[in-house]
Amino acid sequence: MIALSVRTERFTLAAPLRASWGELREREVLVVRLDFPDGLWGEGEAAPLEPYDGVSMASVREALDAYADVLRGLEPTADVLEACRVVSDLPQALAGIDLALWDHASRRTGTPLARLIDPRAVGAVPVNATIGVSDRARAAEAAAAAAREGFRCVKVKVGIGDDAGRLAAVRAAVGPEVGIRVDANGAWGTVEVALESLAALEPVGLELCEEPVHGAELLRAVQAGTKVPIAMDETHAPGAGGVRAVCLKITRGGITGVLADARAARAAGADVYLASTFDGPRGIAAAVHTAAALRVTRSCGLATLTAAGALAPQAGVIQVPQSVGLA
Fold first, then answer.
1. Going by DSSP bridges, is the β-strand pair 124-126/41-46 parallel, antiparallel, or unpaired?
2. Concatenated DSSP letters for 190-248?
3. Is 0.70 topped by the overall pTM?
4. Do residue 184 and residue 288 come from a single domain?
5. What is the residue range of 182's domain?
6. Which of 111, 120, 216, 251 is in Cβ range 3.0-4.6 Å of 116 for a Cys bridge?
7. How far is CA 326 from the centre of its chain?
8. Residue 155 in 3-state DSSP?
9. Domain boundary among 62, 88, 110
10. What's the pLDDT at 76?
């Protein structure tokens, strides 16, 4: 028998984040614990963000309750993740189970998680700073602070007003050597608006643009019309092709889901990197270990924890923890 329990963790962001889908000040995640017959345990995290992904906390809790019923009567040799998937194929809930399984496997084998995923895992992951403010002066101040801290890439939320002015101020603040990526979260809506917006922003020099529009076909059309590398994010079709990069999220099925998505994206000719949905420490740790195992070279959006501890970025990278488990 495997016992499943859930508890809630809440934390406040260091500064409010504004994106085209709304403003985020506080975060709530569910910590999923599995207690195994071997006396060991594993903890994961379920982190839906309804304004962003449309998935409610209530629906994730309902799925986890259903998983608990299944796990109580599961045979020792059964595939735990698949048994849960059959009951409710909800990626954000399955991520909590998947992370707990990997956490348990790391503890059981005494192997740091990144090396458990792939023995060739690298020791550090490059990360970007995220700027989600609509005021030009505040955006420039945040970008300058990130550059002083050693970040080599900043991500600026766009589709929230005065995009061109804010991006020009950010470029002036960070200088020519720091990469700037923008994230529209689909706010530009149509291919025509996206291309017009990118043309206006392109003079500042863009590393890439995440999700200018929603939908694989529209993303391909935008990429065909611009030299700016386009990254797919909310449009979860990593094998669709036609874009230059795919942003992977632990909330979409956990480590196992990310590994499958990375294989599909790379097979379609796209680069990959990871980012968080302002996850808690277990979600960020899982993403850091997975990025290290995938040997990601693009900056990842994982510098989002207020109290990061061992996961705090130093000079634009997060060192991969060498202890076992996620926390």
1. unpaired
2. SHHHHHHHHHHHGGG--SEEE-SSSSHHHHHHHHHT-SSPEEE-SS--TTS-SSSEEEE
3. yes
4. yes
5. 124-319
6. 111
7. 16
8. strand
9. 110
10. 75
